[in-house]
């Protein structure tokens, strides 16, 4: 079946913008919902993309968005959970949490697909996801995975990437910021293992799977060509950015205390749940799917971590500012 009209939930995010651009280049009509249309300016100019300002969690919205679509992507994911109620313009609201965004939203998307007659659903999970994983992030991802794959009336494909890197990532760029600000770098969980995968390769796999009948009902693990430790990643970033820094690993007890402190600061640079997630290796024993060749960290990351001048840095700064 040729899919010419799809919905990409989470399409304005890091992975989403690359997938949407790939789909648009192939002539696929793409609808991208966003709470703030201004934050998806980078997609509005694409010729076959319609950015709709809406709240996907509001009753009936997903059903309306799914109407007339041939396939749905769910790319929504959060790294930090904000529990409890908060005051905003005098109204008590729930902040996003893992259960709501990783479990309830996918279930709502399944219900919307059924109500609208959409049979193809592609979903982003995470390596290490399991209902009995040590972190709430991985548990919620695992619960959603299990529920989606149990939807026998839908053609579901699940992707489980390791940490995803690229010019706008919040991972390697954060390390680069730390390296610029401090002469020493205490690394939490220094032996934690990752298999970094380039965002463009993730987008290619997501796009390829759309037209691949054999992908239905499958779970694909997405990892790059190399397995590296957390400490090695930090040392790599320091080397690429030309920062001579003392990089040392923190023992688990100290790393947990660090996470407990950082999660109370604006931006939540790290949380105790992140610490628990890193106890599970984010690595894969599977080859990259669809005979695609993933690019290495060394081949891609230096191009954006160590830009040559202001002109090269401008697109990255503009993306971060959502302008």
Describe the structure.
The chain has 323 residues and is an alpha/beta fold. It has a domain at 5-165 and 197-224 and 284-297: Rossmann fold (3-Layer(aba) Sandwich), CATH 3.40.50. It contains 13 helices and 15 strands. The chain has helices spanning 14-25, 41-44, 61-66, 98-116, 136-149, 172-181, 199-210, 230-240, 252-262, 272-277, 297-300, 302-305, 310-320, and strands at 5-9, 29-34, 49-53, 71-74, 85-88, 91-94, 120-124, 155-161, 164-165, 184-187, 193-194, 197-198, 219-222, 228-229, 246-249. The chain has a 7-stranded parallel sheet, with helices on both faces. It has a two-stranded antiparallel ribbon with strand order 5-6. Helix 1 links the parallel strand 1 and strand 2. Mean pLDDT is 90; it is low at 84-95.
Per CATH, the architecture of the domain at 5-165 and 197-224 and 284-297 is 3-Layer(aba) Sandwich
The N- to C-terminal Cα distance equals 37 Å
Number of helices: 13
| Low-confidence regions | 84-95
Tell me the number of strands: 15
